[in-house]
Amino acid sequence: MNRDLTFYENRDFLFTSESVSEGHPDKVSDQISDAILDAYLRDDPYSRVAVETLVTTNKVVLAGEVRGNADITKNLEEIARNVVKRIGYEQDGFHWKNLSLDNYVHGQSAQIAQGVDGQGGASEGAGDQGIMFGYACKETEHLMPAPIYYSHLILKNIRDAIHAGKLNGPNGIALGPDAKSQITMKYQGNKPVGTHSVVVSIQHPEGLSQNDVKEMIRPYVVNTLPEGWMCSDDEFYVNPTGTFIIGGPDGDAGLTGRKIIVDTYGGAAPHGGGAFSGKDPTKVDRSAAYAARYLAKNVVGAGLADACTIQLAYAIGVSKPLGLYVNTHGTGAADEYQIAEKLQSAMDLSPWGLREHLQLHRPIYERTAAYGHFGHTPESDGGYSWEKLDLVDKIK
C-alpha cells in the first residue's frame, strides 16, 4: 500500500494556509460566475454553463459558453451588478452602479455537447478529462485542516461584523470588502495546538492608522480561534505594508478560478487540474471534486482513518471513473484497497451518478464561491450536500 506520511509521521512542524474575503478581486469574479450559473440552473436544472469573469477598475468582462434560456443571457449584466452590490462595492474605482460590462457569453460547442450527452443518464460522459482530489481529517469538527478552516472563519466573522455596522472608521465609513488572512499553525505530534503567526490585511477608509485597524480586528481574531491559540503580539500582523485604502478590482484585476487552494484545503492536500466556479456540474472539475470530498469525509467520519485523501480520474465522454485512489496516510483502520471497493459499491461514481446522489443540479453555487467550498454545514435546500455523513453506515 502507498503510505504517504508527509503529514502524519509523529513530528512537530509549522504549516500555513491563507484565505481571501468575498471582496477580493478573484472572489468577486468567482461569485459573479456562480451567480450566473445559479440563474441558468434555476430556470433549467440541466443547463450547461461555463462562464469566466474578469474584473478591474469599474469594468466587468464576461466570457464563456452556455446552453440555456436566452432570456437569462440577456440579464447577465443585472446579475453581475447585484453581486457587486451585495458584496458592498460602492467605491469610486469599483461601483456596482457605475461600472461598465462587456458580455461575450455564447452558445456551447456542439462537439463538446455530443461527448457529454451520450445516451443520457448513466451513459452520459464526463464533460472533460481530469483528476480530482478530496480530503478530510480530524483536526476540526468539520473534518477540515485547521489552518484553512480558521483562516476562512476569521474573515467570515469580520465580514459579518462589517455588514452589522460594527467595524466603522471615521465618519461611519466601514472597513472595505477586500481582505486576506493567513495563519501559520503550530503542530505537535501532528495535532494543531495554536498559531505561530496570524496575518490580516483589510481595506480601510482614510483616517485610520495601521494600529487603529489592528485593534479593530484583534477581537475578531482572538474570539475566532480556540482559547489559548492566539499568537504573540509581535507575530500578529495587520496590514503589514501600513496602508490599504485602494483595494478590490480597482487595486488589482480579478479572474475566475485563480484561488483554487483557498477554495479547497489550503495546501494540506493535493488539488486537481481545474477550478470550480462558473462551471455546471457536468464539469467533473467541480462535481467530482465535491464527490471526492464527500467520500473522504465519510471515510474519516466512519472511523476508518484519521485522515483520508481520495483521487478520482475521468475522461471526456466516458461514463465511468478511470481510477479511484485512496490514501489514509498511515492512519487507516482498514486496508485502502478494501475501502476503495466499499466506496465504489456505496455510490455510483459515473458523472451522472455522483450528480444525482449529491443533487448537484440545483442553484446552490454562488454561496460556495467565497470562504471555501468545503467545511460547511449541509443546508436544507441542498447546499453543501457533499458535506453530509450519510455514507457512514454503508462503509463501516
Features:
396 residues, alpha+beta, four-stranded mixed beta sheet
Q: Please, could you describe this protein's structure?
A:
- There is one protein chain.
- 32% of the residues lie in helices and 22% in strands.
- It has 396 residues and is of the alpha+beta class.
- The strands form four sheets. A four-stranded mixed sheet has the order 1-8-9-10. A four-stranded mixed sheet has the order 6-3-2-11.
Helix content: 25-40%
Strand and helix order? EHEEHHEEEHEHEEHEHEHHEEHHH
DSSP summary, beta strand count: 13
Hey, roughly how much beta strand do the residues contain?
Answer: 15-25%
Question: How is this fold's topology laid out?
Answer:
Layout (H helix, E strand, L loop, with lengths): L12 E8 L4 H19 L4 E9 L2 E9 L2 H5 L1 H12 L2 E2 L2 E2 L4 E8 L2 H8 L12 E8 L8 H18 L15 E10 L2 E12 L7 H15 L11 E3 L9 H4 L2 E2 L4 H4 L20 H18 L5 E8 L8 E5 L8 H11 L4 H8 L33 H4 L1
Parallel strand pairs: 3-6, 9-10
Antiparallel strand pairs: 1-8, 2-3, 2-11, 4-5, 7-12, 8-9, 12-13
Helix pairs in contact: 1-3, 5-6, 9-11
Kindly summarize this structure in a few lines:
The protein has 396 residues and is of the alpha+beta class.
